[in-house]
Predict the structure.
Amino acid sequence: MLRRNQLLCLSAAFMFCSGAVAQQVKFTEFDLPNGLHVILHQDKTAPVVAVSVMYHVGSKNEMVGRTGFAHFFEHLLFEGTENIKRGEFMKVVSSNGGQNNANTSQDRTFYYELFPSNQLELGLWLESERMLHPVINEIGVKTQNEVVKEEKRLRVDNQPYSKIVSEIFKRLFIDHPYGWQPIGSMEDLDAAKLEEFQNFFKKYYVPNNAVLTIAGDIEVEATRALVTKYFSAVPKGAPVNYKRVEEKTIAKSIVDTAYDANIQLPAIITAYRVPGMTSKDSKTLGLISSILSQGASSMLYKKMVDEKKNALAVQALNFSLEDYGVYITFALPNNNTALDTLLKDIDDEIKVLKTDLISEADYRKLMNQFENNYVTTNSRVLGVAENLADGYTFYNKNTGNINNELKEVRAITREDIREAAKKYLNTEKRVVLYYLPAK
Amino acid sequence: MRTILLCMIAAAVYTQSFAQVDRSKPPKAGPAPIIKIDNPVITKLPNGITVLVVENHKLPKISATYSIDMGPITEGDKAGVLSLMGGMLGEGTTVRSKAAFDQAVDKIGADVNLSAGGGFASALTRYFDSAFILMAEAIKKPSFENDAFEKLKGQTLTGLKANEKSVTAVAGRVTNALSYGLNHPAGEFETEESINNIALGDVKQAYGKFITPSRGYLTFVGDITPAKAQALAAMAFSTWKGAPLSLEKLTMVANPAKTEINLVDMPNAVQSEISVTNLISLPMSSADYFPVLVANQILGGGAESKLFMTLREKRGFTYGAYSSVGGGRNQTDFTASASVRNAKTDSAVLEFLNEIKSMRTNKVSDQELREVKAKYNGNFALGLENPARVAAFASDILINNLPQDFYRTYLQKINAVTADDVLRVANKYFNYDDTRIVVTGKAAEIEEGLKNLGFAVNKFDKFAKPVTEEANAAPVATVDAKTVIANYIKVIGGADELKKVTSYTVNMGMSMQGMTLDVQQKKMAPNMEMMEIKMGTNVVNKTMFDGTTGYEMQMGQKKEMTAEAIAEKKAQSSLFEQVDYLTNKYTIKTIGTEKVDGKPATKLLITLPNGKTQTEYYDVTSSLLLKVEKDEVTNGTSVSNTVEFGDYKKVGNVLFPYLQKVTISAGGQEQSFEMKVTEVKLNEGVTTADFK
């Protein structure tokens, strides 16, 4: 049922770290006694309300041998609750004029409903039912197991270039759970017992590990009352403890090949392990990807697609996550250009960034591009809800983090950019992947 | 004081309502929100451009779209010219080069895109004027340089190539081509040939004809006042002139007289793409428009619709099955479609037809009708979050000549649809006895089942051309196999000359998946041979046979040659295997004639001494070997191996093919690469030491 690709398409990953609005986003926040953190944002421009819950659980909370649980729950928690019959959850949403979905990353799972604003209470009922007493039984597990397999076939096994992210991550993360993808292993899911799923729910899907964010055409005080009405009954859970695993540094560049039966054109990929999303360097690396590949005047696009015409596409992006980030470059050849030629062209430009400061004009361009993206990503209430929840979940409970982001990025200097390129884009400590058509 | 009061009220509400939470059923909706659709401000420039402005100050951003209502256009043997023309608008102007243009756009962090239909510009409020002016400049003054044209053409060709084996891409274009016909704008498609047909002059001509103020709509949305937007529009466009534009008159296309299946064979398909489709005429102003929307939604509009429930939830044939329908000035289509696994293709076709029939026979229930209407009402409200929606409503009204209140009364009209309306329009627009079923998939696995359904099954190729069984046969008299081989030996140099060759070395270059590899092959009489493939200085693969034994080495892993393979090698007594074909160790026979790459060829079946067979094709005209095909079983999977030969050149007194195209296919996947010979040396420098 999940419609967004959890493996995050490359460009979506780029957007992930840059979302926020230019004006100050106002909000109200409070905790219920059971530990549920609640964020309310009023915006009456359209008769729409987004009701969302972000659980701070993703694939990195899973164990070796039992991967894919967080994503599996994204399916399981649509199965039904004590008051919602099996298969009715989505029907209730659509037959009341709403839309709903969920997505899972390595770090968190995000569930939401989007309704005309007169259905706010319905949204709260649905999300509280799911948190209070979902039905997790054999039949649900069995059904969703099949659906998840179909999903993997359709979205991973059958899609061109869809294995890139997993091929990169498994080489960059040996000890850290980022080594596997949210979709997980089908064998693990087959082997898991019902009890294990129930225990996973009890451990992570508790109010004290969740943020409820409501954004849109609402009255703040009335909404506060409704939230209390529906969510107070959910019992508090044990505190969630997560211990970050430290990866050993990469001793020597890893050069490898991977094969994809769904492609005709090969690709050349490089990937570097970099710091996680809360660090300043992560933002700097985001800027570096703009310098390299955002817009037709960017270094790589201009040189390879327009001038040398040896690439059909080229992209750099900083895939930022909570514990670490992954910096990726990707190119598709045009006119049968050798992959090594593309690799050299990309490396040459990165070398320039490590040596020279970018020009003042390029720096201003970068800041304008950032601001433009920043303004756009929160044009819808659902985006605002997710960004506020991100702030609380990942940025040390700073719900208003998005309001500072522009200021923080403007504080990054040209020297910071050069230093970050030098420090993190080390060609001796990376993965180079020749991604080739399978026979 | 007021806040405290509010808190007290809230607290009171909380205690009271908490006590009465009834979780057993969904809470009731509040009063329906008032949906208000503001009218954009509409004005006209003297040259005919309509300017629409939707003022919305939520974000400090403005966007502008220029779109030309040119309608569908027949491109004929130059299909793709419009899309190339659109691409060329982004390749620099007479005022500035592409690099300078891109720099100007990126410098202000803006987005400016151009296409055959017009242009789009979006930027932060403070930079919007510059972005807008850049868009206007690209529309009015493209530079049309040849270099850029060749680049875009090359990219288009690479893109076409990348999609060659995409089942969904082929299914999409063939379905349209069969429905509308290859000479209709909705049916024609780009091919390598049509792209190569296009010259820069054609692009310029298309520009002159279609990029014009005539039938143009300029829409501003965002943080801008109408007065400011109109002033910008006037400044950039009011003096612009262009050709008057009128819509192409399209002839009506008929549906099949009787339901038929159109089968397109894609041997690599693991799923069949099925479309059940018929053409319809449904202007948005038609009284049937809203009933058709509702009927389609019930049949296949979403995951709670009939098609999805039957084909996925009940039968498990597919991940999703849907139907779609469009309204408009020209003919459009009703299409129900799904990707279905091979084995269930015929059953799925039947289920599609059953569901269509049921829509035509049975009245939908009140509940179905109610739920669909609720969904439309909700989605309409949700859509209003996007301010551009309001602008789209306004231009829809203008283009389709609809009443002013079309969207303001949209939900009223949806809510007025009855079960009788749905039944009536299902019969009128969802064909059953006269529909077209297009199936793109692996014919070897699905054709039999489809034929059993009782409909005519017509086959088409990947370009929507009819396929008949005889199409591949060449009308040439068959020739005795021994003569064919004798002729071949004669043309490549003659038996005596071949006998004089006791050893040779062939150096080849090969480009595979973007990597460049060097290949060296050495042979020495009677049957010693060696082949080495290198990437740079690394040996990737080496095979060797020294006359009695051999091995294969891949990435440093050595595998001894099997007894069977040794026997096969030992059977050879000449460096040119055809010489051995004439001995009694081999059986050869002619099994037909067939075209290879357009050339008529004699097809021979060669049985090797170990019983294995391969098929070889010899050119009827030149007698040269054109192609060899063989199937092998490796690790339990069947691998078919095809080598095509060409570019024969004389080395000493013997002809060698300088071009070899190898295609390997297995498990539905296929891969091919070309080897180009750089050098052939006869009787020079090869010793037995080379075969170790």
About this structure: Chain A touches chain B through 94 residues (CB under 8 Å). Residues 1-22 of chain A have pLDDT under 50 and may be disordered. The longest helix of chain A spans residues 138-157.
